[in-house]
Amino acid sequence: MQLEPLFKSLLITGSVQGERRMKGGLMSEIRSVALALAVISSLVQPAHAGTQTAELSSQKSHSTRATQLLVQSSENVNKVTGVKINSTDKGIEIILESANAAALKPVNNNQGNSYIADIPNAVLALNKGGNFTQNNPAPGIVSISVTQTNTNTLRVTVIGEGALPNTELFDSDQGLIFAVTPVASATKPQQPTQAVAEVTEVKLNPTNNGLEIILTTPDGGKLPVLPKTEGNTYIIEINSAQLRLPSGGTFRQEKPIAGVSEITVTNSDANTIRMAVIGVDSIPKVELFDSDQGLIFGVASAASSTQAQTQPQTPTEPTQPEQPSSSDEPIELTVTGEKDGYRVQDSSTATKIDVPLRDIPASVQVIPKEIIQDRQVVRLNELADNVSGVRRQETYGGLSSQAYFIRGFATESQTLRNGFKDFGFISPRDVSSIERVEFLKGPASILYGSISSPGGVVNTITKQPLSDPFYQIDGTIGSYDFYRTSIDLTGPLLENRSALYRLNVAYENADSFRDFVNNESTYVGPIITVKAGENTDITFGYEYQKYDYTYDRGFPNNSRVVFDLPISRFLGEPNLNRGEFTSNNFTYLLESKFGYNNNWKFRQGFNVLNVSGSAGGVQANSINEDGLTVARGYRVSNDESNNISFQNEVSGKFNTGSIRHNILVGLELSNYSFQYDFYRGAIADLDIFNPIYGAQPESVSRSSFEKYGGNNIALYLQNLVEITPNLKLLAGGRFDWADSFYRNLETSTTINETSDSKFSPRVGIVYQPTDSTSIYGSWTNSFNPQVFGRSRNDEAFKPETAEQFEVGIKQEFLDKRLSATFAYFDITKKNVLTTDPTDPDAEFQIQTGEQKSSGVELDVVGEILPGWKIIGTYTYTDAFISQDPTLANNRLVGVPYNSASLWTTYQLQKGNLQGLGLGFGLVYVGERESDLPNNIKIPSYLRTDASIFYKRDKWRVGVNIKNLFDTKYYESQGFYIVPAAPFTVLGTVSFEL
Fold it and tell me: What's the CA angle centered on 89, arms 85 and 93, to 5 degrees?
């Protein structure tokens, strides 16, 4: 409890009709001390964070009102900064949020059925200004209003239904609480007095501010409408009504306007219609109108809502508020919406259409930018800590790219960026432009074609232009001379907002805990969206990044002696090890909605990614038998990769009877190539315990000059079928024609060519016994062409294939603020190339290998209490080689049996320290195999992270401590053991202009 309201509450001598009680108290002997402390603490101005609000307005016409009261402030006037309505066993609680709740002294002025309390020396200072009104908050209560009667007096009015409600007052940490209990006669359920009205049509019409939802019925003016909220969803229940549409009893529209993810209208029972408007980040603003057509609900877009909040208001003279009545004036409901949360409720990676995660028969985890910020992530691989079944895989000599082990299988740096393939082996990636990262677990060829890892795919979603101006500057300094700054600018290019832009710029310069290691990175990412028509947007994006770094592979994996070395030990040559890559990424995207209610969408995307550069130096190959020296080699490679993708998709919704279909049809053309010009040379060994650097390479010559790649054409079809509102079937398949090549450019000869055609199906089912539970099962497949191996007879190998069976449950808790996903999976990868046992020189392969991975995963994410966020994971994975002439039963590299993680933050929601937060994290990873055959295990570890941060107005200051207890631990690259960072501190300042 805050000191100021606690001590001041002891000095209250007045009373109000009814009983007023203090929740907690102190001895009267300390009142004089309390008074002195109260005077001192009153000099401290408390910080108040804004709350997002949503409005529900009921009126008989399309007229609205906007009355802004002029609030005069002084030292003797107490501010009420928020109004909340909570349900209780007996009725409701009205909470007037104030830093000086004890100084609010209501005076009773009851009239008839209306409980009226006037509060002198108080002003209403809501985030949006104006008064507060809510109709029908509970049975037996007609309305509640909190209004400004004059410049320094508030009035709380509670109108009972047929009788004066009983009211008690309390002081608390939250503010002044009115506990309202309606009289028994008023709460008796009324018997239905009217016949069930039929709603025969649901229309969505665009408006200047958003859209109108029209429920066509001749009895619109007679229907009782009961609003409520759940999380970011605004729900309206319409009694004595039924939906009678030609297509059945359900209407659904996804993403009708900005800020709204979905609108549904359904029959909740034989006598009630339920309409739900689901917001993206907060509760949508809704207005209700009666008309001759029926019921009309006006829904504001995110842009118009924001404009309304920021529109300057003209101060007016205080006026006497009207008593709530059945007038044509809109009814305003102010509620607090969730903002900057850890939990994301929908994803496009698993289906290429926006679908709630609970409707997807697969395990999909989404890491939003809020987690990236709170953890102060500077490398995208760090996000593996927050997703079950995923471990980071170290990259190409320390390059800032993406690589993971997912469900036991290495991704080999193949990821997605905005749905396009991104070969991350030599592609640096910066975190500044990231909106979220989506992890789809399991084979993903159904939508993305040939892919190396059947464990899953990672799709990085970048930030898009916003219609409202937003400018942010970040600066970070940290251990080992780490310096980083970034800029995020976005807003309209034209006054009519028909063209929007976004620009992300970042620069980083850092040393390392590793000797002689450093990096420098420059990133620039402009993007422009043009509104080519009412329902058509065209986006052009470009990303440039140059990454200069010390090429460092870590330690060889053939001896445990490396665990005795200092983690800072560098086994290369300081003057020879270097890498530099430049990435250029261009994207064009067209999206156009059409058809009835804009239920159909055409999407066309084109992406070109070129990365070029070189990396190399001295590389540690193996620890010698003496255990004191390391055998090394010199290598340098000049590399270039190109990705070109052209995607065309049509998605839409339609009904066949009562069954709803969400269909996707796509055509993709793609080309990929990777070229390397590789040089090798000899260099002297190095004493690993007493290194003396300065050796020079000898006999350097070209080792290989090769290129591989291919062309791909694919057709795919998918249908998410809503058989009933709680039973959904996802089915589809993709047919790929892939021509692959592997060439020797030095001799202008073809080493290998393959032409493969493959169909990749997927089937999944979701059953939802309640609106917070989803039980699912699925079967998925993937393939990957084989172009590198050679058989003794020079025959082309079949593509690698994989299939997965998965079952799981998704459960929501705490009024859907917290969600959990529990999954069991079983993956089998076939046609794996293994060494031909009859070949003494090991030059040829046979295709008899098989690998298996199975296990269980648990992910929990959300908000336990206001300000208390959490994301946690647990994984058990059994990944091994099931068939191989020599490696059978060996575990796959880099995959522990058990791993778990937790990251949680708590931010104070009120008081003088409002905005102050703490973060705490744990990461446990069991021991892993470092090589094949299994000889050396990488030890397990438990790492602890922590943070402290403060947010106020447009500022955020944070300090993150990674590896708080300086745990010595290692990660796997697949062929090398890489030491991880010790105790590290990062301090960040962010400012919104």
Answer: 25
